[in-house]
Amino acid sequence: MKETRVDSLKDKIILVTGAAGAVGASVIAGVRAAGGVAISTDLKGADMTLDVTSEADWQRVVADIRQRHGRLDGVVNAAGIVAIGSIEKLDFTTWRRVLSINLDGTFLGCKYAFPLLKERGGSIVNLSSVSGLVGGHNLAAYNASKGGVSLLTKSVALLGARNKPPIRCNAVCPAFLEGPMVDDIAKTARDPQGAMEKMSAEIPLGRMGKPSEVAALCLYLLSDQSAFITGTDLPIDGGLTAR
Ligand SMILES: NC(=O)c1ccc[n+]([C@@H]2O[C@H](COP(=O)([O-])OP(=O)(O)OC[C@H]3O[C@@H](n4cnc5c(N)ncnc54)[C@H](O)[C@@H]3O)[C@@H](O)[C@H]2O)c1
User: Fold this and answer.
1) Which member of 95, 114, 142, 220 is catalytic?
2) What angle do CA 21, 110, 96 make, to 5 degrees?
3) How far does residue 1's CA lie from ligand 1's centre (Å)?
């Protein structure tokens, strides 16, 4: 077996959404450290402004990449939001916002990157979640959006497998990670510190994941080391979905 080398993304052009966030920023740093060219995008605080729900933004960003680089080798669709709420509590506006960013945004990312990726083959990594694999009574919109991302991933993978060279597409499914998303969830609880401890206790390994651990999995999936992996949902969850 080949070893994973630090330059395993040498000269690969990789587009990352949600790049100002915990996972996205870690992926950007990892791509650069692995010798690749990372194009960071987010609503603000990135190389390029890209609202993942906007078709016009996607068209502009992809046209810019085509002009500057002439190709694209990988995409990490990391933009996402969470909203706590059961079907009883969640209002329709919030439902639509979560579906729009998490699911429509990933659809548009796959759709608009695909023509560029087709030319030389490539790898798409979609950020799903353990919440795309198992349900939670108060995560109606998030569950639906991430479940959608996981099955969308399989559809894209099967289409991409027909391309020569192939375009691979995989979903990574983290459990709670250290960072602003989980901090915000905890803040909605009466006892935020207790809520953080409860979330860690739910994980068999007894701690939250680190954005850098998720980024390392994304880098592997972007690299040619994972050339035979496509259409998967890969939990990175400290054992949460093992029980
Ligand atoms: N943090 C976790 O515990 C966790 C667990 C499982 C899955 N995930 C998923 O991983 C991904 C990354 O999460 P994170 O922890 O980095 O979250 P984060 O909140 O740190 O970052 C998310 C980023 O997405 C950006 N974003 C929001 N709406 C956008 C839009 N319309 N267009 C473009 N960008 C937009 C935000 O500006 C932010 O920078 C998300 O899809 C999330 O659902 C996170």
Assistant:
1) 142
2) 65
3) 34
**pLDDT on residue 165:** 97
Instruction: State the pLDDT at residue 39.
Output: 98
**For 79-231, where are the alpha helices, taking DSSP H only?**
92-98, 105-118, 140-160, 180-187, 192-201, 211-222
- Cα 206 to ligand 1 centre (Å): 23
Enumerate the β-bridge partners of residue 237.
none
Tell me which residues of the chain have a pLDDT lower than 70: 1-6
Q: Which fold has domain 13-174+209-234?
A: Rossmann fold (3.40.50)
Q: Using one digit for the tens of pLDDT, what is the confidence trace for 212-243?
A: 999 999 999 999 999 999 999 999 999 999 99
The residue extents of the domains of the chain are: 13-174+209-234
Alpha carbon of 156 to ligand 1 centroid (Å): 21
**C-beta 42 within 6 A of ligand 1:** yes
